[in-house]
Amino acid sequence: MLQRIEHCVDCIRNITNRKPEIGITLGSGLADFVNALENTLEVPYEKIEGFPRPTVKGHEGKLIFGTFHGTEVVVLDGRVHYYEGYSQQETVIPVRVLQRIGVHTMILSNACGGINYAFKPGDIMLIEDHINMSGSNPLIGENLDAFGLRFPDMSEVYSQKLWKTLQQKAKDAGIETKHGVYMMYSGPSFETPAEIRAFRVLGADAVGMSTVPEAIAAVHAGMDVMGISVITNMAAGMLKQKLTHEEVLETGEKVREPFAQLIALAIDTIQENNAQKMDVVI
After folding, report:
1. Coil, helix or strand at residue 212
2. Is-catalytic flag, 236?
3. Does the active-site annotation cover 229?
4. Which one from 60, 83, 260, 273 is the annotated catalytic residue?
5. DSSP at 235
6. pLDDT for residue 33
7. Which member of 37, 147, 164, 220 has the greatest number of CB atoms within 10 A?
8. Is 69 a catalytic residue?
């Protein structure tokens, strides 16, 4: 696996030497943010030998390098999921490749179902913690010592300082956000009403089919993580209607503007935090 990751890095380096600081994974229907980037360079996944490719509608499958407020970023426009037949070790290859080309902070976004009765479709939830109900873990197998420890600590996967600062910035900008616990379910079938009732008892506020493996791999590699969920639908049994992927994409389209604004605020939050760290070091 390490050789595959390094080969992906070499393929990218043969195309560009840009060194992004922040990596952003865009969930289903949430790609509008890329329009705010300057000096963009697009690299289709198929040009990166060994890089996993998405098969789901709403996931384009390309790296987009760009600058935002002077900060070098790279966007994963399209992610691969466990339910597509990839192992979780494969689903986190993109995160590990980004770490190798310079990324120190990941912003992981997703479209998901609301479990908390206080939520409604179109709400944006900042992830404060997660529950892994996928039945697997991206760190299973031989440990990649080049990235991190065999048994990494997961007591603060999502930086508390970052998401709390972002929440205040969003409030000041007139963007309403929620915060809560995200649960990953393997999919691809949506959850049953009985499962949703069980997940609520376990403490989940939202449920989706991604993000958790990427967050685990990022923490394993020493990266900071921010998680942002768009509540695109209420989970099974909460409303008298059936769930569809089209609903997910439609709601993502409706919230694209506040979501893009929130990603912009997240980048500013990260850079301010990095500047504070530098001041402490000096």
Report:
1. helix
2. no
3. no
4. 83
5. P
6. 79
7. 220
8. no
Of 6, 245, 247, 250, which one is the catalytic site residue? 245
pLDDT of residue 124: 95
The reply to whether 83 belongs to the active site is yes
Query: What distance in Å separates the CA atoms of residue 118 and residue 239, rounded to the nearest whole number?
Result: 13
**Amino acid at site 218:** A
Active site residue: 84, 90, 191, 214, which one? 84
Q: What DSSP line would sit under 38-65, residue for residue?
A: EEEEEEEGGGSTT-----STT---EEEE
Pairing mode, strands 62-68 and 71-77: antiparallel
Q: Which alpha helices (H) appear in the chain, and where do they start and end?
A: 2-13, 88-91, 93-100, 160-172, 193-202, 212-220, 245-254, 256-281
The pTM is what? Answer: 0.92
- DSSP bridge pairs for 114: 206, 234
14 annotated active-site = no
Mean pLDDT computed over every residue of the chain: 90
Q: Is 179 a catalytic residue?
A: no
Q: Tell me the pLDDT tens digit for each residue of 118-127.
A: 999 899 999 9
- The helix (run of H) or strand (run of E) holding residue 139 is none
The mean pLDDT of 21-44, rounded to a whole number, is: 85
